[in-house]
Q: What sequence folds into this?
């Protein structure tokens, strides 16, 4: 995916830093960033409190955090089917609810002006 991103941003690379890092750990950046964009990644991170602390730690004041991710109940049918087959399935997703996510963001020092929902 990073190779694809590098190709798509080739003509704008001077304006964009691409970072490959473990989001559960502090991010290896030398200076704060204006924006963080994530698509379909946060639900793979078990510890959202650490995730949001790490992101807030590198975001400029008034910077933007834009994330596209599923929420609580997003794959409930799939999880139920897995639980029917496996006695103790490994929990590989973290689809947090709105209130829980908002509290974790606030605890990390991230303030926000709006949520945006796209329903299936």
A:
């Amino acid at each position: 995916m990073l190779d694809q991103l590098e190709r798509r941003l080739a003509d704008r690379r001077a304006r964009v830093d691409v970072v490959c890092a473990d989001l559960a750990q502090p991010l290896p950046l030398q200076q704060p960033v204006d924006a963080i964009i994530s698509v379909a990644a946060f639900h793979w991170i078990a510890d959202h409190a650490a995730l949001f602390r790490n992101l807030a730690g590198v975001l400029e004041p008034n910077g933007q955090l834009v994330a596209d991710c599923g929420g609580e109940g997003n794959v409930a049918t799939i999880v139920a089917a897995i639980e029917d087959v496996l006695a103790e399935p490994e929990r590989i997703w973290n689809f947090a609810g709105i209130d829980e996510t908002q509290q974790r963001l606030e605890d990390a020092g991230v303030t926000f002006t709006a949520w945006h929902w796209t329903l299936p």
Summary: The longest helix spans residues 76-85. The two ends are 25 Å apart (CA to CA). The mean pLDDT is 83. Strands lie at 33-39, 59-68.
